[in-house]
Amino acid sequence: MNMNAGNLLKKQENFDEIGQDKVVRLGFRITDQASGRLLQYGDDLVYLHGGYGGAFPKVEQAVLGCRVGDRVELTLSPEEGYGRRQPELVLELPADEFMDGIPEAGTAVDGELPDGRSLTFTVAGVSTDKITLDGNHPFAGKQLAFEFEVLEIRDSSAAERAAGYAFDAMFC
Fold it and tell me: What is the pTM (predicted TM-score) of this model?
């Protein structure tokens, strides 16, 4: 085996810090702070850092300056996260309005609010004569605890900055 320096593979380190116009991939866990229940987790939160709307402002502030491998914990109030629950986004409709059959609870359905705005609703309840639809985000009204791990950081492209979001397939 030839071990001279020219034949050794060097591990490429990423010393980038999260900052303006960096594309970031985070691993995350979200728990309901009141109940401690795990709500969501994954390693696929990819966003363009710097106020483009891909992450909540408090999250962007918390991870600013972090590097790959760093971990951050924070909590978000409803106002800092998914907002307060809005009762006007909960609708009860007669079951016979669903021509394609009665949807199951938990199913997403596209619909329209009385004021004409289109919205995706979650079927919150089903009975023999009515269907309850909820247009609130499932995490609305919750105090949320977040745990993040910085998995990747890279420079954004001019096209991503112009679009205002990360093309997450570019991590490959």
Answer: 0.78
The pLDDT tens digits of the residues spanning 21-38 come to 999 999 999 999 999 999
The pLDDT assigned to 11 comes to 44
CA separation for the pair 72, 82 (Å, rounded): 19
Please report how many Cα atoms fall inside a 13 Å half-sphere around the Cα of residue 83, on the Cβ side: 8
Element counts in the chain: helices (H) and strands (E)? 2, 8
Give the residue ranges of DSSP H helices in 19-131: 57-63
| Cα dihedral across residues 65, 69, 70, 74: positive or negative | positive
Domain annotation for the chain: domains and CATH numbers: 16-82+140-171 (3.10.50.40), 87-134 (2.40.10.330)
Distance separating alpha carbons of residues 133 and 121, to the nearest angstrom: 6
Give strand pairing partners of 75.
Answer: 145
Query: Residue 109 is which amino acid?
Result: V
Per-10-residue mean pLDDT, the chain, length 172: 47 76 97 96 94 96 97 97 95 86 88 87 91 94 97 96 87 55
Residue with tokens 């050794």: 8
Work out the angle at residue 123's Cα, subtended by the Cα atoms of residues 120 and 124, and round it to the nearest 5 degrees. 125
